[in-house]
Amino acid sequence: MAGTSIILWATLPSMTKSILSDFPSMTLLYYSSVLASAALLVFLLATGRIRNIRTYSKRYLLCLTGLGLLGEFLYSALYYKGLSLISATDACILNYLWPITAVIFSCIFLKEKLTLRKVSAILLSFCGVILIISKGKSFSGFAVTDLTGCGMCLLLWTF
Description:
Layout: H1 2-20, H2 25-47, H3 58-85, H4 88-95, H5 98-109, H6 116-134, H7 144-155
């Protein structure tokens, strides 16, 4: 099971990029959301947990909906749009820069100590981002679509 999960997870960016050649990003987002919702509904029905939904208050369900829109919908919309504009490799690398955000936010919100080691890692990571975005060229090597796609993937950090 673990090996299958690793293989499926590793092929996700290239498969998504391939699908994006046939569908617009928002259409893909719609179909993936419908498929995920249907799978969740089948799971809830099969396990009998569908009845638990009635125990939640309307306010709680509204909060869950808002978090789903921010956390999953907006994240996926930005990722699919960014992936449609830049290579799968670049999008995947930029998508997985969330550890930088985790370190920065843990220092801000959790009052963790910002050490020289953490600052060095953050600066090195940002240098890597610049290398990825510029394809190893100077800032004059940027293309508008590259900046837009990279910007979409970099915005993922905040969600």
